[in-house]
Task: structure prediction
Amino acid sequence: MKCATITIIGRPSSGKSTLINTICERKVSITARTPQTTRNAIKGIFTDQRGQLILTDTPGYHVSDQTMNLRLQETTVTALNESDAVLYVIDAKRSAGAEEEAIVVLIKRLSRPLVIAINKFDVASPEEYETTKAFALSHFPNAPVLPLSAKDDTGVDEVLIELFKVAPEGELLYPEETFTDQPLEFRISEIIREKAISQVTDELPHAIYVEVADLEYSEEAQSIWVRAFIIVERDSQKGIVVGHGGDGIKKIRQAAFKEIKKIFPGKQIQLDIRVKAQPKWRHNAITLGKILS
Result:
């Protein structure tokens, strides 16, 4: 029996969250077209007859000295240092740049087994794939480099085979049926955030975070009551989220309700979502410490 903690690292929008959801066959990490949707180290747990892989999805590694981004970088570095092995996901559709070079430096500092997956090979040209593969091998000539389409579930089994090869022998750390260790409040807040950022455009998704203020159970009524706040940075942004006549917040609530219902099958769900402003929260160390912990 094998058991390993695997940190997944890659640039923003390289497909890390999609991959972890595909491996676990359910929603573990939210996804969106907006880069750097993932803000926390999120664990997805895969178990089969070979053993268990605890896969940690990390924020897309982006080179920037802004306060929030530095905290996201710190989250990734911490996850790397705590892992048994590393899965490096590279987007075949984008040329290597400063972010890719920075990731290479991080990985080279570690003495960890490495598996490299070149994602989106289904939509990349042969030239794009070969260029990406050459980049990977130029830095890590001894690492396995595999083609992958996380979205289409192609090449995923081969990635798992390589990860189990480098996994050490050990007992399971989680029960077989466990697929994540996220607290309920966090899972709910992430679902709401995913639906909120899908309704807005431009830079606003980065100005949003979600706080679950109340989560109450009623055993007698078999019901769950959730009160959550979508928090933006300026009062002017509240209207964008709420939408004309409340249409935006209605769509967010309806979409989030469907996802949250899956967490509590057979239960009645009451979901109250409101919007409020917290000026400059992305530069507030206390707030960042709370939401990026």
Observations:
- Strands lie at 2-9, 42-48, 51-57, 85-91, 114-119, 145-148, 209-218, 223-232, 268-277.
- The mean pLDDT is 92.
- Residues 184-291 form a domain with the GMP Synthetase; Chain A, domain 3 fold (CATH 3.30.300.20).
- The longest strand covers residues 209-218.
